[in-house]
Design a protein that fits this description.
The two termini are about 20 Å apart. The strands form two sheets. The protein has a three-stranded antiparallel sheet. Strands 2-3 form a two-stranded antiparallel sheet. The longest helix has about 35 residues. It has a domain of about 180 residues: SecY subunit domain (Preprotein translocase SecY subunit, Orthogonal Bundle). The radius of gyration is 24 Å and the shape is globular. Helix content is about 65%, strand content about 5%. The chain contains 20 helices and five strands.
Length: about 450
């Protein structure tokens, strides 16, 4: 691996891309510490610390994770890239249900650019709406247990907050696009990953305090517990890699065609159906819904609603059950949107392809739908287990959620997925220039 890293800097184009990627991510991390004008950052951080301990997390906690802690400090990048992610998901759903967008998606590069432009407009709109309501939320001291977050409330503060946070989100979106074009890897995904990884030092600091190697009397975690945590972390990462890379290969045979003196077709290939088609999108949807009552509870001081919200906080049995069921539902929902067995069957029939033992047309579509339903159940069940695994670690080993969150959930899925994708892109550059890559055999498993 170290030889591969050294070789990566021997290729001028790859070296330039790696440097540009690192520099743009550094710019993003610097912006996460530039505060929004008119905010008492210390008081806001204290409030976020309280709600994370008492309410088990809110939607603001999700935004805070994706922004790398910028939300709890309300910096210029407080909204992070979440508005862009939401806009992208909305556009994906519209593409599946609106014929005009579906037609646009099939136009190739021109259609992709139009959809991407609409996604940007949606990002700006969502950023304006979210930042305005955040400004209103910050101005009310009653919601912060008496803490004065905004020093000079009013329309001046609201307009300044909207402009600052919206501009920050647009700038992050631009950084992601620059990484995509001039760097290496998926720009938006790398920005999210950088924010999640930035929380690792804080998690290690909390773990060090719990271990207290130089003060045994204050030790809260024994060395054997730390060893168990290391083994579990390795097992989680290994299993996530397997499921992320796992595919069901459906064999496809193309009939031979004789045109003049040439013979076309006759080759065998396969259709790779991913076990986990939805990735982290199902978890994001499920988290947004199950944490919505806890978020509203911080705004609505109704005793009945407060009791209902308390039953759906992290650590409760009802929370884990509902959370797992929502993840399985959204895995199927998203797979049904992005995977169309009828279109796939028609395309195979159009080019003379067929699955051995299955008749072309409707029987092929039914077979593909049957297989996808079965493997999605396995992938969705695994994602559900990984999502609630941090809660189990937190309750069993008595560690803070920030430490336990790296044993599963959205963070580990994003980190593993993005790292694998970036690794493949670096690998392709190395193999193109006849350098030995990160994989000893010179290829990624499952890719020829």
């Amino acid at each position: 691996m170290f030889n591969a890293l050294i070789n990566a800097f021997k290729i001028p184009d790859l070296k330039r891309r790696l440097i540009i990627t690192g520099a743009l991510i550094a710019v993003y991390r610097v912006g996460c510490y530039i505060p929004t004008p008119g905010i008492d950052g210390a008081a806001l951080a204290d409030f976020f610390n309280r709600i994370s301990q008492t309410q088990g997390g809110t939607l603001f906690g999700i935004i805070n994770m994706f922004s790398g802690g910028a939300m709890e400090r309300l910096t210029i990048f407080a909204l992070g890239i979440m508005p862009y992610i939401s806009s992208s998901i909305i556009m994906q759903l519209l593409t599946a249900v609106i014929p005009a967008f579906e037609k646009m998606a099939k136009e190739g590069k021109a259609g992709y650019e139009k959809i991407n432009q609409y996604t940007r407009y949606g990002t700006v709109l969502l950023s304006v709406v979210q930042s305005y309501f955040i400004a209103l939320w910050l101005e009310n001291p009653a919601r912060f247990e008496g803490l004065q977050i905004v020093m000079n409330p009013g329309w001046g503060f609201r307009i300044l907050t909207v402009l600052t946070l919206t501009t920050g989100t647009i700038f992050i979106m631009w950084l992601g696009e620059q990484i995509q074009e001039r760097g290496i890897g998926n720009g938006i995904s790398l920005v999210i990953t950088a924010g999640i990884i930035s929380r690792i030092p804080t998690a290690f600091n909390q773990l060090f305090v719990l271990i207290s190697p130089f003060a045994p009397s204050r030790r809260q975690i024994q060395p054997i517990t730390l060893l168990i945590m290391a083994v579990l972390l390795a097992g989680v990462v290994f299993s996530v890699i397997l499921i992320t890379q796992g595919v069901r290969k459906i064999p496809v045979q193309y009939a031979r065609r004789i045109v003049g003196r040439k013979i076309y077709g006759g080759q065998s290939t396969y259709i790779p159906l991913k076990v986990d088609t939805s990735g982290v999108i199902a978890i994001i949807f499920a988290q947004s819904i199950i944490l919505f009552p806890a978020t509203l509870a911080s705004f609505i001081p109704n005793p009945g609603f407060q009791r209902f919200a308390q039953s759906l906080i992290r650590g409760q049995v009802l929370y884990s059950v509902v959370y797992a069921l929502l993840i399985i539902f959204f895995c199927y929902f998203y797979t049904a949107i992005v995977f169309n067995p009828n279109d796939l069957s028609e395309n195979m029939k159009k080019y003379g392809g067929f699955i051995p033992g299955i008749r072309p047309g409707a029987p092929t579509a039914e077979f593909l739908d049957f297989v996808m339903t079965r493997i999605t159940l396995a992938g969705a069940s695994f994602i559900a287990v990984i999502a609630i695994f941090p809660d189990f670690i937190m309750a069993w080993l008595k560690v803070p959620y920030l430490v336990a969150s790296f044993f599963g959930g959205t963070g580990i899925l994003i980190i593993v997925g993005v790292m694998l994708d970036t690794l493949k892109q670096i690998e392709s550059h190395l193999l193109t220039h006849h350098y030995e890559g990160f994989i000893k055999s010179g290829q990624i498993k499952g890719r020829r």
